[in-house]
Amino acid sequence: MISIKKKNEALLYVSSEDSGVLREISEYFTFYADGYKWMPAFKNKLWDGKVRLFDLRSRTLPYGLLEETIQFCNDRGYEYTLTDIANRFSFSSEFVDGLTLSLGNKEIKPRDYQLKAFEYATESQRAILLSPTGSGKSLIIYMLLRYFLSEELDKKAIVIVPTTSLVEQMYKDFEDYSQLDDFNVEDEVHRIYSGKEKYFDQPIVITTWQSAIKMPLNWFAEFGCVIGDEAHTFKAKSLTTIMNRLVNAELRIGTTGTIDGGQVNELTLIGNFGPIHKVITTKELIDSQTLADLSIQCLVLKYSDEVRKEFGKKTYQEEITYIAEHEKRNNFITNLALDLKGNSLVIYNLVKKHGEPLFKQIRDKAKGRKVFFVSGNVDAEERERIRSITEKEKNSIIVASAGTFSTGINIRNLHNIIFASPTKSQIRVLQSIGRGLRKSDNGQGTVIYDLADDLSWKKRKNYTLNHAVERVKIYNKEKFKYEIHEVPL
Question: In angstroms, rounded to a whole number, what is the distance separating the alpha carbons of residues 189 and 222?
Fold first, then answer.
């Protein structure tokens, strides 16, 4: 017999008189970490490369893995008992009908898929809502927070986001949604990040995880609801630590447009929140004309035979530096950005080696066009100001680091995106594409310019060309329209 009890809202207590069964459970929830072979701790033989989700000593397991634990029992024919496992929340259509939601000072109604996501979240109490950028995740979050406040009088709600820019954007979204309602955002919502007051009276706080992790343990006890935006980042140890400290948070909802698919990462996220629930796909939103039409132009930059032959077998970092500092390549990016019509976003990785020189080159040739630069050194208010200006412009250029603009930042009236730096990360690719999927005022679609670098010679393939192949696989999987063109550099 296996006993499954609620220890608190973060953890389950799983016990059995048979120690062998407990070792089976431990083995069932043990996996090799992604990329463990390259991690220093594994190389130095300080760690076996495995992640163990079940703590054999304390006999605790992340609460979100309840369904997986029951499946384990059923698959092996073990009897089990459940104690203190119950959902207190339930869907209320009357509550949603009573909200006066707005966008741009005009009353709106939630879309069908948003209502279904809200219904699933409230009835399951724990879930990861998988819904792409531009699908209105912040509206779902806003409705969930309003619902929680209507149900809970003595607990507060916390919204955790990865960047200061997203704190500001979420706050402004809430202001927009409540313009025609009696919900006063200033009175109800507090923001926390570097330089902001850490203690507050409002029932809702929006914070970065970097600020939350610094708070004392008792600070977390007052929260009965946690919502993790960009939930795919919650596989990190610091974020799991925060989730484990929220011992009284019954309502645990994660929202994200992308999950990288690694088994241990996926189970870590499920453990922190709950089962993954697919709300809608990007293609469905494009087909229904909710999002802008998307096309992808894969531009394979062909270096000369002489360059490719002499390039030789370099390390990944050497190749990245070579590409970032290549004069003809940067001239091509500059000319492409200046030739495109509409608002354009150029996404880079390396600030000093690539982003700053590229920005100066584009700015110097822009002839009066507005050109903005964004990196991690640009504060949240300035990033929000740039985003707001761009939404009102028709022909501006933003040169932004992937770390600041690939995750969560929505820009209306963005017509072109240039991937100036290579990546094979599914999350980064899909998040970056999501920057341009909000419909423009003029109905113009979005074009992605995906730059690939062919530095191969005979059978030797360079790293970033292989990364481009991985990106094309992602486009096929997501059923995006794309074309591949070779461009002599």
Answer: 15
